[in-house]
């Protein structure tokens, strides 16, 4: 590996955990090259089933989604793979929306389903020197967010 590892957050709702586990197993070689973060149960599952080292946060409903959101805001997550269940109501839906909002605000790529996760994990940009633009929200208001490009 000639590039710095990406910091990838992995999250899955209960009905999507098996799908995420199957995806992670298929991409095990690639995922091993990166630093992984996950909410509680998902992280435990990835460690136990696949032997992947994972920085685990709390379970999503207990604050894990918010912990990952904080890392996104700090610039410490490069990719969010979040297999959420659009057909099942979630008691912590406001936390889920906040996490997805922060990923959008900070220009972090989000894979919310298998097809998108496959596209992102196989992209040459993942293994390259690509640095996504981060908006400068702390600048004086100009009416639009500034996106400096870093190489």
TrEMBL record:
Alphabetically ordered keywords of this record: Lyase
Binding site for substrate: 13, 17, 39-42, 59-60, 92
InterPro entries assigned to the protein according to its UniProt record, in alphabetical order: Methylgl_synth, Methylglyoxal_synth_AS, MGS-like_dom, MGS-like_dom_sf
Gene Ontology BP annotations: methylglyoxal biosynthetic process
Broad EC category: lyase
Keyword Lyase in record: yes
PROSITE patterns: METHYLGLYOXAL_SYNTH (PS01335), MGS (PS51855)
Coiled coil feature spans: none
CC per GO annotation: cytosol
Keyword Nucleotide-binding: no
Ranges where the MGS-like domain occurs: 1-151
Record function comment: Catalyzes the formation of methylglyoxal from dihydroxyacetone phosphate.
Family according to the record: Belongs to the methylglyoxal synthase family.
Name of the protein: Methylglyoxal synthase
Species in which this protein is naturally found: Nakamurella alba
Gene: mgsA
């Amino acid at each position: 590996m000639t590039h710095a590892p990406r910091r990838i957050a992995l999250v899955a709702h209960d009905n999507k955990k098996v799908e995420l586990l199957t995806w992670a197993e298929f991409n095990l070689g690639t995922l091993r090259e990166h630093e992984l973060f996950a909410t509680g149960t998902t992280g435990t599952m990835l460690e136990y089933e696949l032997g992947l080292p994972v920085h685990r946060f709390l379970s999503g409903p207990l604050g894990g989604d918010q912990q990952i959101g904080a890392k996104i805001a700090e610039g410490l997550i490069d990719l969010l793979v979040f297999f959420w269940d659009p057909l099942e109501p979630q008691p912590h839906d406001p936390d889920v929306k906040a996490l997805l909002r922060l990923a959008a605000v900070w220009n972090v790529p989000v894979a919310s389903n298998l097809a998108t996760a496959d596209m992102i994990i196989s992209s040459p940009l993942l293994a390259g020197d690509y640095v996504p633009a981060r908006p400068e929200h702390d600048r004086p208001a100009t009416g639009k967010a500034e996106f400096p490009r870093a190489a």
